[in-house]
Amino acid sequence: MFGPRAGDLERIARMGLDAFVDEQLAAAAEPEDAEVQRRLAPLDTLSKTPGQILEKYSGDPRGPGIRRDILLDLQQAAVIRAVYSRRQLFEVMVDFWNNHFNVGFNKKFDYLLKPDDDRSSIRPHAMGTFRALLGASAKSPAVLQSLDNDSNVRGKINENYGRELLELHTVGADNGYTQQDVLDAARAFTGWSINTLREDAGKAGTFMYRPRAHDEDAKTVMGLRIPANGGMKDGEALLDFLAVHPNTARTLSLKLCRRFIADAPAESVVSAGAAAFTASKGDIKATLSAILRSPEFKASFGQKIKRPLEYVASALRAMDADTTAEPRMQQALAAMGQPLFLWQPPNGFPDTAGAYLGASSFLARWNFALDLANAAYKETRVKLDALAGKGDLIDGLAQRLFGGPLPASIKITLQPFASGRQTPQLVALMLCAPLFQVRG
Amino acid sequence: MSNFIAKTLGRLPAWMPRLAFAPTGQAPRGDVMVVVFQRGAMDGLNAVVPLGDPDYSRLRPTIAIKAPRAGDAKTAIALDGFFGLHPALAPLKPIFDAKTLAIAHACGSPDETHSHFEAMDSMERGTPGKIGGLGSGWIGRHLQAVNTGNTSPLRAVGMGSMLQASLRGPVSATVLKSIADFHLNGRLQDVAPMQMAITAMYVSPDNRNADLKATGSDIDETIQVLSKLDATRYKPARGAAYPKTDFGMGMQQIAQLVKAEVGLEVACIDIGGWDTHANQGGPEGTLARLLQELAEGLAAFHTDIGEGMKRVTLVTMSEFGRRASENGSAGTDHGHANAMFILGGGAVGGMVHGTWPGLSQDKLYGPGDLALTTDYRDVLSEVLAKRMGNDKLAEVFPGYTPRPIGIVGK
Question: Considering the entire predicted model, what is its pTM?
Answer without folding.
Answer: 0.86
